[in-house]
Amino acid sequence: MNTWLKACLAGSLLFTPTAFAQSSDDDDPYAYPEQEAERAQEKAQKDDDDAYDRRRKLVDETDEFREAAERESDDGFQSMARLDDPSLGVAVELVGGLLMVDSARGNFSDNKPAVGVRATYEFGRALKTENEMWRQGFIADLRWIYGSLSDGTDFIKGDTRLHYFTLAPAWVFRFGESDFGFFVQAGGGLAYQNTGITVGEEETKVNGLKPVLQYGLGIRGRPGRSARFMFRIEATGLRRGYANDFFLGGSAGIGF
């Protein structure tokens, strides 16, 4: 009897379903109100720290950009000031006007037409500065002006040809942001004088070089920068030895 009962109990255990331990959120430790408040405070503090880190990173990037923008060119920062005006600052102009040669006969001047050529370089662009007043203010002119005089009778006649070669820097005062400006100039060079005196059938030639002091003022314009058209209206003095010659005229040309 006991043997049969034991066998039945052992057999029933084989058909008993296996029980597994179940887990649920309800098994978590009970959180007291003080702990909930502490957790909320920690989360708020973490959010504040993250927001502060983001703001500080943004400020640092802004400061780095500002420092780069204010950095000089020799520190490795490439300036963008020339992008809106890629001109080389070189110009060639034809010159024409009235040459007032100091008269040897006691008159104020012998007035004759004159022509010439001028090459201009805006050397202020080569300066390491982003100041537009300095970049476009300094210019230098290499100029040649030619004029001639002729006077006398059928028996005695004199012909004089004058060549002025000058190099002169100038300072241009622009009229605000316009394409026009007032300039003053001073420089020097040489005057080559070729004179021929004819007496009857014989001609005697006299050539000579004299130093020249050039000074003057005028108005310079470059209207419509895309067209690169340039012009000047000027009054220039040419001190040639003891003689004071003057040139009144203008020029027009193209810039590059």
UniProtKB/TrEMBL annotation:
Residues 36-46 have a biased composition (Basic and acidic residues). Keywords: Signal. The keyword Signal applies. SUPFAM superfamilies: OMPA-like. Residues 20-52 are annotated as: Disordered. This is Outer membrane protein beta-barrel domain-containing protein. Residues 1-21 form the signal peptide. The keyword Ribosomal protein does not apply.
